Inverse folding.
């Protein structure tokens, strides 16, 4: 059995882990820790898992194989470090952490322990993304990536910590990481500059530029309440031989090339957010979303947030 524990359950994406426990007989949820005992009990009860209000006590007593981190954003960095120090692999909801100091601590813990951290970049596993990766060669050299990620705020449902900068980490820290990762996938960009701009904490853009490519990721909490979807997420790829529009919320991929008019591309089956990472860990392998990749895209999102808070100054970056 692969023993899974949850360190922090403040975000509903904790269900990414429980979905795999439901689907795979060899996965067992052994414990849930959250400062709110009520919240921990809610997630633990269906699995008869142990309940803790202190994740460190949970790690000492239960000794899990894998820890899912999905707590209050500002608490996540320490939870990841503690899980690594306990000898566990980690799967983490985004954001992985909210400060560059926390990220450096995670990086050092990874180096010291040899354990892995996988950031659950679920857009990678959407059918639209998988299809786009398959056909991307038809577009020639991809020079431009433009993403739009509107979200509904649903203010009455948000906890107080969500509006506390120290606990939330900032708009770009939270929302830009998925599209930064996708932009790097499609362009192969490995160095350049990153900058950010945020308007009134609710609308922002992260921009990465480097040799031969420009990536812009617009994100916001301004999707109108009347919209039929929480977020009409989309991305456009512009290449020397064609373009592709990834309409994630509409489950469509529209491609236009020098030889073909706009057309929908058939989509493959996708994967649940934690499906492949947990399968890899259970088999003794590092997941396809590597530790290095999660650390890199988290650093880029944090640098974009730092740039936004210091006048939009471009900051240099390179892949380690």
């Amino acid at each position: 059995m692969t023993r899974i524990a949850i360190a922090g359950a403040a975000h509903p994406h904790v269900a990414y882990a429980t979905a795999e426990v439901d689907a795979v007989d060899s996965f067992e949820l052994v414990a849930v820790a959250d400062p709110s005992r009520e919240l921990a009990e809610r997630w633990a009860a269906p699995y008869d898992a142990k309940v803790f209000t202190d994740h460190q006590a949970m790690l000492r007593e239960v000794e899990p194989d894998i820890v899912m981190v999905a707590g209050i954003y500002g608490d996540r960095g320490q939870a990841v470090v503690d899980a690594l120090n306990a000898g566990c692999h980690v799967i983490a909801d985004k954001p992985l952490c909210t400060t560059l100091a926390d990220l450096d601590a995670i990086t050092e813990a990874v180096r010291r322990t040899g354990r892995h951290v996988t950031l659950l970049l679920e857009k990678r596993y959407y059918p639209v993304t998988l299809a786009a990766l398959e056909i991307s060669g038809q577009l020639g050299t991809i020079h431009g990536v433009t993403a739009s990620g509107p979200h509904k705020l649903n203010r009455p449902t948000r906890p107080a910590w969500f509006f506390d900068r120290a606990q939330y980490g900032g708009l770009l820290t939270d929302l830009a990481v998925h599209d930064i990762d996708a932009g790097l996938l499609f362009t192969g960009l490995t160095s350049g500059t990153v900058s950010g701009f945020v308007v009134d904490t609710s609308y922002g853009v992260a921009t990465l530029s480097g040799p031969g490519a420009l990536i812009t990721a617009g994100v916001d909490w301004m999707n109108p309440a009347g919209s039929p979807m929480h977020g009409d997420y989309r991305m456009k790829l512009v290449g020397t031989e064609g373009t592709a529009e990834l309409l994630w919320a509409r489950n469509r991929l529209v491609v236009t090339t020098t030889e073909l008019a706009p057309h929908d591309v058939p989509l493959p089956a996708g994967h649940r957010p934690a499906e492949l990472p947990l399968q890899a860990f259970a088999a003794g392998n590092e997941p396809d979303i590597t530790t290095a990749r999660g650390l890199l895209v988290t650093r880029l999102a944090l640098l974009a947030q730092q740039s936004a808070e210091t006048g939009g100054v471009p900051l240099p970056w390179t892949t380690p």
